[in-house]
Hints:
By secondary structure, the chain is an alpha/beta fold. It has 19 helices and 28 strands. It has an 8-stranded parallel beta sheet with strand order 19-16-15-9-6-5-4-20. A 7-stranded antiparallel beta sheet has the order 1-2-3-21-24-27-26. It has a 4-stranded antiparallel beta sheet with strand order 22-23-28-25. Residues 630-719 form the Glycoside hydrolase family 5 C-terminal domain.
Amino acid sequence: MGLLRLHIDGKVFKDPQNREIVLRGINVAGDAKYPKTPDIPSFVSDKFFEADDVSFVGRPFSLEDSHTHFKRLRKWGYNAIRYIFTWEAIEHAGPGIYDEEWIAFTIEVLRIAKQYEFYVFMDPHQDVWSRLSGGSGAPSWTLHAAGLNPIGFKSTEAALVQNTYDNPVEFPKMIWSTNYTRLVCQTMFTLFWAGRDFAPKAIIDGMNIQDYLQGHFIAACKLLAQRIHEAGDIEHDVVIGWESINEPHRGLVGIKDISIVPPEQQLQLGTSPTAFQAMLTGAGRACEETTWAFGSFGPYQTGRQLVDPEGESAWLPADYDDSKYGWQRDSAWKLGECIWAQHGVWDPDTDTLLQKDYFSKVPSTGEKLNYEIFTNTYFLEHYRKYRDAIRGIWPAAILLCQPPVMEVPPDLKGTRDDDPNMVHAVHYYDGLTLLTKHWNRLYNVDVIGVLRGKYWAPAFAVKLGESAIRNCLRDQLKFLRDESLNYMGDHPLLFTEIGIPYDMDNKQAYETGDYSSQTSAMDANHFALEGSTSNGFTLWLYQTENNHEWGDLWNGEDLSIYSRDDLELPTKATYGSLNPQSPGYSESHSSGDESEVGPRNLKGALTNLSISSVSSQTPKGYRAAEAFLRPSPIYVSGTLDSHVFDLQNCTFSMALTAKVATLSEAPTEIYLPEFHFPENCAVVAVSGGKWEIDYHEIQTIKIQRLRWWHAEGEQDIKIDGVKRKAGEFANPSGDDITYLEQCQKGACLVM
Length: 751
């Protein structure tokens, strides 16, 4: 086997020339969360409960369309893909029944990704356990295996599901995430991680439900890994590794008192049951629960509401035909009754809570539990099994370990789990912006600082002003990076999810075409990433079917950087006109190749940008693309010390330290988006060495890059592009001069 395209060297990624690699990636694609046949996004109720008879072939997109999507992402400067798939896609028909057609299709998509030179890692995605419980991930039969009945989730509020909501258009924004603290998720995740300890009666096919669920999940992922291995041309060449299960949640493990909402529970929205109330309503009892909304300063209580299932249960009836999937349930595990009642947590005859602290300690030993202990025991036990299963197929696989979101990572440094071929995968969202769907330029909160006990009171965590907000986001990400080094050891860190909502302020941008708030938020997030000293990111999200009406077609979310209803930011191919009679026409457009803009046709190109022809009656924006299309180091000959892009001034700066002079065949390379750095109009200043701007050709696309050959020691580079006024595309400007004038003044390609 030859040298790997990417390998880990301590806490950085390296290429075969020993250059540091920075991953600039994207999650592909949100479409993979729901079936293709039948097509069931989260607002469709038809055939929703017929979840065994589905197919994900065609997700995230067809083979025919894959070239279009991969070309677009490559042109936008992305070199990495977090490839979303679900357990359901592999094993939807029943335990041990695998969809080989979907697996074969996935391998073909990955082969096409290989043609575009992406680094891909596989993401076994889940959100709040399953589509049937309001999210994505696990097959529906896993709920039946646990004794749950998805048809009863609506009336009991065991899970809030947009597909079964009376009017899906009115499904409250971001309420899906509260399912983590409702009955189904609390039960399924507790059983998945810790069923042996907390539900010893839950025996199915001779094993505890914990081993049954984990075993099937790992076996499904292992089968996909096996087929990728057997394909012979995907491992190393395109698939570089595997991430652990997405956004693991502890369920009820470590909850001290299930009669109250835990004080550490950050999110309350809509009805907010205690775990015991969720058990009662899940069993058909009526409960009065507090109701909450989310405002500018976080959750606040709005009142109380009676949740009355009128006797309907979230559990399968006692006479349910349990033979459908071929399993054998132990006789001590009774259908028709809450599993937690069967384990003595509460008495269903009197509706009395018997053990409010049942989940606060290991029942058999009395060992106290909290989230940190959960992460270092139950989570790690599963992670090791998953890791070993993947490595059993592919010993050189990189494993991306994703602990619970926003929690302290496991303490692996110096232990047997301090694996040199491991990456720490972290998720971060600006919660205030995500939940309010508004970019607040006045204040934000240092959430990580609050969670880690940095402040005497939450009021001290408030940051005032947009500059302070941007710095706060950066400092939070930098804290997470430093925390990773302290706990996980010297490993690369990737932010495998980070992003912004596009439907801000009741979708105002979709009416006006003004994406200034989205641009500011996206720029702030990228500024934070650049200052985090991490090894890269995969932005959330690319969704091929996104539209203004339904967003990402999943639970009202709208985070995709691409939408069918928005314009794409102009590149060279959109300058000028294809009408030969137009003053903006250039001969280069009439060839079959990508159009070029040079001195001969520059003025015409600038006066004929496609945005200028858009009717004001049908405003379309560029979806804040100027903020995510930004320069970035690709390969660094040496150690990357810092890099940042100043969007307002269109200036990119980078510093590095090299032990030796750059080899001729392995220069430092920087991606330069043509929108900010049009051909022959970049001002470059370097500390030393020589450089050139050229194009890296992949298939039929050309990606602009700067290559820099420098000496050893501390080196820095600054690249000035085309400065524009906010929201202005047709007439880019410097301070008071036009883009054309900048070039005429000679501000192009100088040192």
